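Predicting holo structure, zinc ion bound.
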Amino acid sequence: MSEYVDRLVCSACGAAFAPESLHTVCTHCGKPLLVSYRLEALRGRFRPELLAGRVRSLWRYAEVLPVPFDAARSLGEGWTPLLPQPRVGRLLGMPNLYVKDESLNPGGSFKARGLVMAVAAAALRGVQQVGLASAGNAAGALALYAARMGLSAIVFFTGGNAGAGRVGVPTGRGAGASGARHHRRGGGGFRSVPPRASRRVQCGDAS
Ligand SMILES: [Zn+2]
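Done. Tokens:
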């Protein structure tokens, strides 16, 4: 864990939690927890030149990540290209419009960024099985990183087969998927997915 990690803070109610312990969501209100960093301390020590020569992935920003870099946990997430969009930019009156192609992340979506951290943090705390509810992309990223780090994964689709059809990544031991109406757990892995589904362009909070 970065020496600059201060504490975990609830995104809704502000309750604080010790970063060394195992948490899922806020025990007071059930909302997600965010990592809070001691940015004032970092401000005095960090210089952009420190990034030169570091690994070309999101792991290069080690000071503001909750998990230390280990190549055995990474699949090269981040470092996706910014693509100029002059035609759309002209239409919108934005001459310097760029789109970041997050489909080049492992698993084909920006969900790789958060879930590599979540699964790694869980693995470092002794967790052996992880799970979440998802419409597809998060499930794929979870299964991908669980397989990478030797954990088993369970994903829950909220109904029908829409989510299951979008999961197309290799899975590790015991990975399974289930839905409210279609229970699809199994030990082999998720079914394959058409190539078009793995090239989705994400619009979200990735950077
Ligand atoms: Zn809370």
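The CA atoms of residues 10 and 30 lie 9 Å apart.
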